[in-house]
Task: structure prediction
Amino acid sequence: MNSSYYELTIITEPKFVDILGDFVASITDDAVEFGNDRVILRTEDSVDGVIESLKEINDSLSSPLPLDIKVEEKENIDWIQKYKDSIEPIDTGKFYIHPEWYEPMEGKINILINPALAFGSGHHATTYSCLKAISEYVKSGDEVLDVGCGSGILALASKKLGGEVDLCDTDPIAVDSAKENFELNSETYNDIWVGSVNKSSKVYDIVIANIIADVLKAISKQLKERVKEDGFLILSGILDTKENIVTDSFKDMELIDRIKKDEWITLIYKKGY
Result:
């Protein structure tokens, strides 16, 4: 890939854009962009020949088209590499979350997540805090439910600690993403479904729900029902301005830990006191 490319912009009246764009496209192999009042050609090759052809054809017309021709030389950015450079690994609790273009870290539980869409890759404060809580509260043999699993990162973390995990999300794309990430990490889950906590009748040692405060309130009864006696409930996705919505809804459980990162709150409850 060359270090630079040329951007040729031909500004004209809107009614001439299609015919002008078709002509430019016919004399070059590079992509041509059609705008409202302009045609844009981006190429690593010289644009002198295109400009000369444009002027020749325009001069031959009985009524020449109004053309304003501009050429800029621009840096040819490798956008894929630029994106990769912008993604940093996350080191939180017992875990090191990294995309495939970073090496694993010794002494940490490594989880491979290639960031995609809006699903958690560990960078959001709520995911970060949940991973910290999972490091402390999930132990080998625990049955774990991840509600609103997104990328599946929290269920994966629980599995890496020896948990037996179920996970769900109301978004089918999230469920597919979670499945792919389990496969990417050579891990297995017990069950996964499209939907919410109400589709499960099991009880779990740990229930994790990283959603938003209003949804946590709406499904608070179902979440509490899914937790075993002496089990733990990890709640996150809570803006500090909405913390009271959640604490009011779960006041019949024992609040044993609170993690604040930026403006986001994670609450850890214990059932049966």
